[in-house]
């Protein structure tokens, strides 16, 4: 399917500054419809939910629309969408409510620390799934010996935030469910890069962050409402005990939630389409993934052919994310050099704390990360490659 990259880019005001934004793995830029939706919510007047006046009803509608939009994006149910400030905060909240001393949790060294540390701090016994440091793959067969009758949760990423590795989550989930364990999937890095169906993944919980897919800084964890009914998080005595409200503390940022809905609508319209919003999202994100991987083939080949560049990981299935070092230069020096040429990339461990240790580079500054999203084009890739080539 043809991907209308020029039309897509025209919706992002920030791209007018001329920089190549290859930092999308840390957070994407915001399209005009999202900016407009947030502004419109403030202009219309909003109040806390539950009031007897129109502004309160508007806020209630914004929350309901946001839950429905996130559910459409990941293939969940609106009543199972828990909203919060970010994925890390929500995962801490849920981890404390789900696991504890006497339980076992199976974690992966492929994961972002936000799907690691919250579980290690519950008091549960931790069992580790290791990564192949050469390929960046997460072998499934090890899970058969890691998961046992005491396993409460298996937590794993749907895509590595530095290597892009897409592990075989459905196969891992099958082993977890066979043992009666819950599957907590970190979809923060995966969601922006292609269609998502949390049921096909076997995810009992699917976590995502809107600012990684052109929305504001809002996190969400999606689960079956019936499952959420069985979990009792810490909460104020006076706050609602219904699902999913019992998991959400404090007053929500209602205008930002309006922006989340607009971001989902934006993603559904990246390419022309018909049908339900869910159907349009699947088609649109499929086209975006094809576009990204086409550009990534040029980027990764260009990096791998440079003798002064070391690229980490060669997973069979991945997102358009490259992690590399340049001989004779620290990752920070490379990032600063590229910034001087108008190319934005990240450097460091990028919170892949266990994975950078497994790669043997955490204590030396990690590496450089360049990540493509749907608004990047060939010129962005060419500028990165030209900039890295200058460091030979």
TrEMBL record:
Domain Aminotransferase class V per the UniProt entry, residue ranges: 21-384
A Pfam family recorded for this sequence: Aminotran_5
PANTHER family attached to this UniProt entry: CYSTEINE DESULFURASE, PYRIDOXAL PHOSPHATE (PLP)-DEPENDENT ASPARTATE AMINOTRANSFERASE SUPERFAMILY
Name of this chain's protein: Cysteine desulfurase-like protein
Originating organism: Nonomuraea phyllanthi
């Amino acid at each position: 399917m043809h991907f209308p990259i020029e039309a897509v880019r025209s919706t992002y005001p920030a791209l007018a500054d001329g920089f190549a934004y290859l930092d999308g793995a840390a957070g994407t830029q915001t399209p005009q419809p999202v900016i407009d939706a947030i502004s419109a919510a403030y202009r219309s007047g909003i109040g806390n939910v539950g009031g007897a006046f129109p502004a309160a009803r508007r806020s209630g509608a914004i929350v309901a629309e946001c839950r429905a939009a996130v559910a459409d994006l990941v293939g969940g149910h609106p009543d199972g969408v828990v909203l919060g400030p970010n994925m890390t905060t929500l995962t801490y909240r849920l981890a404390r409510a789900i696991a504890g001393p006497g339980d076992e949790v199976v974690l992966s060294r492929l994961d972002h620390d936000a799907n690691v540390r919250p579980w290690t701090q519950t008091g549960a016994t931790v069992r580790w799934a290791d990564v192949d440091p050469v390929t960046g793959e997460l072998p499934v067969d090890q899970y058969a010996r890691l998961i046992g009758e005491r396993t409460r949760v298996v937590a794993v990423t749907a895509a590595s935030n530095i290597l892009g590795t897409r592990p075989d989550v459905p196969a891992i989930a099958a082993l977890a469910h066979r043992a009666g364990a819950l599957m907590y999937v970190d979809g923060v890095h995966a969601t922006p890069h292609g269609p998502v169906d949390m049921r096909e993944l076997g995810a009992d919980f699917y976590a995502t962050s809107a600012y990684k897919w052109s929305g504001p800084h809002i996190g969400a964890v999606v689960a079956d409402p019936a499952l959420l009914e069985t979990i009792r998080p810490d909460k104020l005595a006076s706050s609602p005990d219904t699902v999913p409200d019992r998991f959400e503390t404090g007053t929500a940022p209602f205008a930002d939630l309006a922006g989340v809905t607009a971001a989902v609508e934006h993603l559904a319209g990246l390419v022309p389409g018909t049908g339900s919003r869910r159907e349009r999202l699947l088609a649109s994100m499929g086209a975006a993934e094809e576009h990204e991987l086409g550009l990534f083939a040029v980027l990764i080949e260009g990096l791998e052919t440079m003798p002064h560049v070391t690229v980490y990981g060669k997973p069979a299935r991945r997102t358009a994310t490259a992690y590399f070092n340049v001989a004779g230069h620290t990752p920070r020096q490379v990032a600063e050099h590229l910034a001087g040429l108008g190319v934005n990339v990240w450097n460091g461990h990028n919170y892949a704390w266990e994975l950078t240790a497994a790669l043997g580079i955490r204590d030396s500054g990690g590496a450089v990360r360049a990540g493509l999203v749907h608004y990047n084009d060939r010129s962005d890739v060419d500028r990165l490659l030209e900039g890295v080539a200058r460091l030979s």
